[in-house]
Design brief:
alpha/beta; globular; eight-stranded parallel beta sheet; about 250 residues
Length: about 250
């Protein structure tokens, strides 16, 4: 059977003036993870926040007791140099470091923000490096990236090079509040057919109106921002999203 439903509200839609409380409240409302969007103004045109903010909100949410457990900080790294920031986010309290495939094939092997390197990294090297820092590793793809670029990575015989999660973007990354792109569901279906036990995350435009299509395709990790934080009853929305996924778990 496919993995259980995981609802990961994006704190990009939370009240930044009371972010710690918003995070703890969201977990108390039934969320499994918190999705933390990190944007650098280079890989995507927007900027959000960095490791110091993660450090500040970490005490408001208990660390997960098991891999992928409740309280997981799912850091979505929309940044041009993902390897440089792995250690900083590990220290800040990140549990799952999800970098973009598109960044990993063009970025350097430098391991610290101030470092420079003429060597390049790769998706497999990135996954191994994240695992070495005792975090789960995720790999994300933009709408313009075909899903089959991931087959060689997911089929690696070396499990240290295999991601713990794949994120299929259902909007173009960079800004919240965009419309859900149903055109990305064939990617989710292909992933679920090939890898029945894989955590497959979708991010962008997810709400009660679009959850059925994502769940039917096989997504089990659901990122929702304004749908949760803008709701009058966030707990009810989280519950409905979770039930929609659970009803469609594939055996």
């Amino acid at each position: 059977m496919s993995p259980p439903a995981i609802i990961a509200p994006s704190i990009l839609s939370a009240d930044f003036g009371a972010l710690g409380k918003a995070c703890s409240d969201t977990i108390n409302h039934g969320a499994s993870w918190l999705h933390i969007d990190i944007m650098d103004g280079h890989f995507v045109p927007n900027m959000t926040f960095g490791a110091p903010v993660v450090t500040k909100i970490r005490p408001h949410v208990q660390r997960p007791s098991t891999a992928c457990g409740k309280g997981t900080f799912d850091c979505h790294m929309m940044i041009a140099e993902p390897k440089k920031w792995v250690k900083d986010f590990q220290k800040a309290g990140c549990d799952l470091y999800c970098f973009h495939y598109e960044a990993a094939i063009t970025s350097t092997a430098a391991e610290n923000p101030a470092d420079h390197s003429s060597s390049k990294t790769s998706p497999k090297e990135m996954i191994r490096y994240v695992h070495e820092q005792k975090m789960l590793a995720g790999i994300a793809i933009k709408p313009d990236t075909p899903v089959d670029v991931l087959w060689d990575i997911l089929d690696s015989p070396d499990k240290e090079e295999v991601p713990d999660m794949v994120l299929v973007m259902t909007v173009h990354p960079g800004f919240g509040g965009q419309k859900f792109m149903a055109s990305e569901m064939p990617k989710v279906k292909a992933l679920r057919q090939r890898y029945p036990e894989l955590n497959i995350e979708v991010d962008g435009g997810l709400s009660e109106a679009t959850i059925d299509e994502a769940a039917e395709a096989g997504a089990n990790v659901i990122v929702a921002g304004s749908a949760v934080f803008g709701a009058k009853d966030p707990a009810d929305v989280i519950s409905k999203l979770q039930k929609a996924v659970e009803r469609r778990r594939q055996s």
